[in-house]
Specification:
The complex is a heterodimer of chains A (526) and B (466). Chain A is α/β, with parallel strands linked by helices and 526 residues long. In chain A, 41% of the residues lie in helices and 19% in strands. Chain A has 19 helices and 20 strands. In chain A, the strands form five sheets. Chain A has a seven-stranded parallel beta sheet, sandwiched between helices. By secondary structure, chain B is of the alpha+beta class. Classes of the chains: A alpha/beta (526), B alpha+beta (466).
Chain lengths: 526, 466
């Protein structure tokens, strides 16, 4: 075995292109591991940690591309390195040299395209702040997709944006829908009368899709990044978003989606809402509903609840909130529960939730914490226990696969399913597991062909369980619409054909999973 | 009062980063522009903070610098021997291309050219003696640029060599350049064989007096006008000088015939100029030099007034940092090689000719020269893209020099080191390639992107002026 590395000075590609290239290199026969990465300090540390560092990298800088190959022998390594250029050229459509001219700077882009009104920024976090500031100075609204932007930079950008009367969505804002246009990781939903402000990307996607699938539409969906509602940023853009929707003639109902805001921010939100005539529905996952209600907001407990309440409010139907009790659900789901329990033994007691959406992992904890004992997570909230090792599940485990420990050096699990696929099979071979709970998120930016990625893993999971003379229940929610490039109906059909029970929402999937495992417990007792 | 140009308006997006986001916008029918983003050059946080805080002052200085550069009016006004003409010239001084360098660090072709010059000057009898003398300490070396001169490739100027005198008629400053020897085995590529020395002697004894008399009889020749016309005729006046040489020939020919001592002398001189497509190169370089020199020493300006290479180092000087050189290793150019040669034979980049790019010509004007797009990928669109990209690192557009294909837009002029650093784009330079061994000569021609390091140092150097 050999490790070889080279430095390509002054070459730059975005991280997704580089990670795709590294993945293609790993597919070559004889290549054990590979990395194609920019030579930043952080990346060099990753290479060192993964045993792919060579001394040649010492003198490289941020603007150099590093190629590292671990292979069976030197020839394979050299061939793989030789292949990188071809792979990158193929990935860059148009083959490079004769591409249509692209400006290299925002300033130049604005000169060429003077009526631009929004900059969508997804460069690495250490550079993103400077680019966002340039965009704001040029009078552009900004959607800042990049993560790892320092908190001080976020505050500075947001204060400056407000001074200039501009929106700054993000950082770490994965999704937004502006004037009906899905931005970054967003779904195709119809124009409508519900406006969303969200400090949770997955929450925004889920609620906007549920609203769309129920026949209503979205006026605007503004993502602000999860730190906005913390004490330091103080809800600057969350509140600006509410104000803008309050003034927007197309918005009739405002829906707020986030984890519980910091107390001081919640207070400000309350003061803002007080002066607004439009109804405001709020789902602050895990927050005390009464506090929210006192602030003149209509509280919702879960994301599907929030979507349903927003629609009911819009349609001026009576009743607020989710009126359904646990008993209702038990009855409602009885048929499915019985079907899912077939072949599941009394020693199979646990749920293993493997989420690509962080908010879904939170929602699962909110919905299951009072129903189940022994819940653990790698990103626990409320009273849930923290997993000692995120790679190894314990009892009921709800795993956020988008957490930092899983995403360093690889694409987000909504794009790259490989890590979760391995985990699905790992969980299926655990004799104590009854239910594997999954989410699939569709839309632009997400994996374009999720069935091809996940079905083999599901088949193998089912086969593994069968070999151990047991069944395993796989429950999945699919966030998306039939207008999304992946088409939700196609995905649902493909999953169902492979023995997956697909639910309308993550919340419904969580409830069902909870009922399947508790059903067994109560059954045992009687 | 919030002026809202977002909700209810047509969304128009500038996408910086993941191109898949633009693909999605295309599918949704939303107008968008992709920025081909590259990381900024890594400069110290301190310098970046200082520069950012003083942008207003820098902009003011740059405006003054650009006013001077764009107003430059280069004219060929005479000739003379270097010793009598070039300021600070001495019998034991050899001027060379690029930033300062000592004999021990000189590359092969530059050493070869020094050897040739010492033999030509009669200071050494043979190459071995010349080398001994060159390293003895008796010979002094200095950059052409520090003596208001420029020289292509090795750029060697010694005391007896005749030089053109170029005057900036707007500001009254002068610049100097030798006459171009032609292609093949020539001193500027480090060749020093007898034929090379013989040609230099002929140039000194026959070509120089004829040209000098012809120029004097004309009074002055407007180089700005020749360059402007040549750009409309397919030259960028660095790697292609065919049109400019022809225009110069048309201008000078009657005067040479009129002033030559006899018909044969006139024929020889005219044939020499006619036979060398690059005869004008030294004049285009001196024209740029004289225009840029007028803008030197305007404190705090971030505009480059020199980019030059000595075959070992690549050096940059800014208008706002006085005589300081900012230096990094010179890269080996990407080139088309003459038959029998490859990149392994190539010397790192060499010559003062990057003064043309510094002045907004050469690689910056390559969109004007479709005939030589073979150097940049083979398609005219590639050449256009290179020029378009240079607008992103320059402060202004030339008034005199225009590109027909871009609707007569002025060439990108005035390299702003701040833009170079922020956009991570370095200047694009046309260049000839010398063999790394002395005496072999030119092995190819091509293009290269300037190295980043001198610009990073220049940026940091500029921050030290505050």
């Amino acid at each position: 075995m050999i490790i070889k590395g080279t430095v390509d000075k002054g070459k730059y590609y975005d991280s997704i292109t580089l990670m795709t290239a590294a993945k293609k290199l790993r597919e070559l026969a004889g290549v054990i591991d590979s990395a194609v990465i920019m030579g930043t300090k952080e990346n060099k540390a990753i290479l060192k940690a993964s045993g792919l560092y060579v001394a040649d990298f010492d003198l490289s800088s941020d603007t150099d591309m590093l190629i590292a190959i671990k292979a069976k022998n030197e020839k394979i390594a050299d061939d793989a390195i030789g292949n990188v250029k071809v792979i990158l050229d193929n990935l860059k459509k148009g083959g490079g040299d004769s591409r249509e001219f692209k400006p290299r700077s925002i300033q130049k882009a604005v000169t060429d395209f003077p009526d631009a009104n929004l900059a969508l920024i997804s460069v690495a976090g250490k550079y993103a702040g400077a680019e966002a500031m340039k965009a704001l100075k040029l009078g552009l609204h900004v959607m800042l997709f990049s993560d790892n932007v320092p908190l001080e930079t976020e505050i500075e950008l947001k204060k400056y944006a407000l001074q200039k009367g501009l929106l700054l969505m993000g950082p770490d804002c994965g999704t937004a829908i502006i004037n009906g246009v899905p931005l970054a990781f967003a779904n195709v939903v119809p124009k409508g009368k519900i406006g969303i402000v969200a400090a949770s990307g997955t929450g925004l996607q889920e609620t906007s899709c549920l609203i769309a699938n129920a026949g209503e539409g979205i006026s605007q969906a503004i993502g602000v990044g999860s730190r906005d509602i913390g004490k330091d940023v103080g809800g600057l853009m969350f509140i600006e978003g509410i104000r803008r929707l309050a003034k927007d003639p197309e918005t009739e109902v405002i829906l707020l989606v986030s984890k519980p805001p910091h107390e001081s921010v919640l207070k400000k939100i309350g003061q803002t809402v007080k002066n607004i005539k439009k109804p405001v529905v709020a789902v602050f996952l895990g927050a005390d509903l009464k506090t929210v209600e006192k602030m003149k907001m209509i509280p919702a407990f879960s994301l599907d609840d929030a979507a349903a309440v927003a629609i009911r409010t819009l349609r001026k139907e009576t009743g607020t909130g989710f009126s359904h009790t646990d008993n209702y659900w038990k009855k409602h789901f009885l048929g499915i529960i019985n079907k899912e329990r077939k072949g599941i033994s009394s020693s199979q007691k646990y749920i293993r939730g493997l989420f690509s959406g962080g908010t879904f992992c939170n929602e699962a904890q909110v919905l299951l914490k009072n129903k189940l004992k022994d819940i653990y997570s790698n990103s626990p909230i409320l009273s849930v226990g923290k997993l000692d090792n995120p790679l190894i599940s314990e009892k009921n485990s709800l795993i956020d696969l988008g957490a930092d420990e899983f995403t360093v050096g690889r694409p987000h699990p909504m794009i790259d399913y490989s890590l979760r696929n391995k985990r699905i099979i790992q969980e299926a071979s655990d004799r104590t597991v009854a239910v594997i709970l999954l989410d699939i998120v569709l839309g632009y930016g997400d994996n374009p062909n999720p069935l091809a990625e996940i079905v083999p893993a599901i088949q193998q999971a089912k086969a593994t369980a069968k070999k151990g003379r047991r069944a395993i229940s796989i429950i999945c929610s699919v966030t998306g619409t039939d207008k999304d490039p992946q088409n939700r109906a196609t995905i649902v059909k493909g999953l169902s054909e492979n023995g997956v029970t697909v639910m309308e929402s993550n919340a419904a999937a969580c409830r069902l999973a909870g009922l399947i495992v508790t059903h067994e417990v109560s059954h045992d007792k009687t | 009062m919030i002026k809202d140009n977002l909700f209810g308006k047509k969304l128009k997006v500038i996408n910086i980063g993941l191109e898949s986001f633009k693909d999605a916008l295309d599918k949704c029918g939303v107008e968008s522009v992709q920025v081909d983003w590259h990381p900024p050059a890594p400069v110290t946080e301190k310098s970046s903070r200082i520069i950012t805080a003083n942008l207003e002052q820098i902009d003011k200085a740059n405006a003054e610098v650009m006013k001077k550069i764009l107003a430059g009016k280069p004219a060929l006004v005479g000739m003379g021997k270097a010793l009598d003409t070039v300021p600070g010239m001495k019998p034991n001084l050899i001027l060379h291309a690029g930033p300062p360098i000592t004999w021990d660090r000189m590359c092969g072709p530059m050493r070869g050219a020094v050897v040739g010059a010492l033999i030509y000057e009669g200071l050494a009898k043979n190459p071995a003696d010349a080398e001994k003398l060159a390293e003895s300490g008796e010979i002094e070396y200095a950059p052409c640029h520090e003596h208001a001169a420029v020289g292509p490739m090795a750029g060697i100027v010694s005391a007896s060599m005749p030089v053109f005198v170029i005057k900036n008629e707007e500001f009254g400053n002068y610049s100097y350049a030798t006459m171009n020897e032609g292609l093949g085995k020539v001193l500027r590529y480090g060749a020093f064989s007898e034929e090379v020395i013989a040609r230099l002697r002929w140039m000194e004894t026959a070509l120089y007096p004829s040209l000098k008399a012809a120029i004097e009889s004309l009074g002055s020749i407007d180089l700005r006008s020749i360059i402007a016309q040549a750009l409309h005729m397919g030259d960028e006046v660095h790697n292609r000088n065919r049109a400019a040489t022809s225009l110069f020939y048309r201008t000078i020919a009657p005067a040479i015939v009129a002033t030559a001592p006899d018909k044969n002398a006139a024929i020889k001189v005219l044939e020499f100029i006619n036979g060398n497509d690059h005869f004008f190169l030294n004049l285009s370089m001196a024209a740029c030099k004289v225009s840029l020199d007028a803008a030197r020493n305007i404190l705090h300006s971030s505009i480059a007034v020199v980019m030059a290479r000595n075959g070992t180092d690549f050096g940059v000087q800014l208008a706002g940092t006085g005589d300081r050189w900012f230096i990094g290793p010179a890269p080996v150019p990407d080139a088309l090689f003459f038959a029998g040669f490859s990149k392994d034979d190539a010397n790192p980049d060499i010559g003062d000719s990057a003064i043309t790019e510094t002045g907004g010509l050469g690689g910056f004007a390559i969109a004007s020269a479709p005939a030589i797009v073979g150097f940049v990928g083979g398609k005219a669109a590639d050449a256009v893209n290179y020029t378009l990209q240079m607008y992103e690192i320059t402060a202004a557009e030339s008034e005199a020099y225009q590109i027909p294909y871009l609707n007569f837009r002025g060439t990108p002029t005035g390299i702003d080191v701040i833009k170079v650093v922020e956009n991570g784009i370095t200047p694009f330079i046309d260049t000839g390639v010398a063999h790394k061994k002395a005496g072999i000569g030119q092995v190819g021609a091509g293009v290269l992107s300037a190295p980043l390091e001198p610009f990073i140092k220049a940026y940091e150097g500029l921050s030290e002026t505050f």
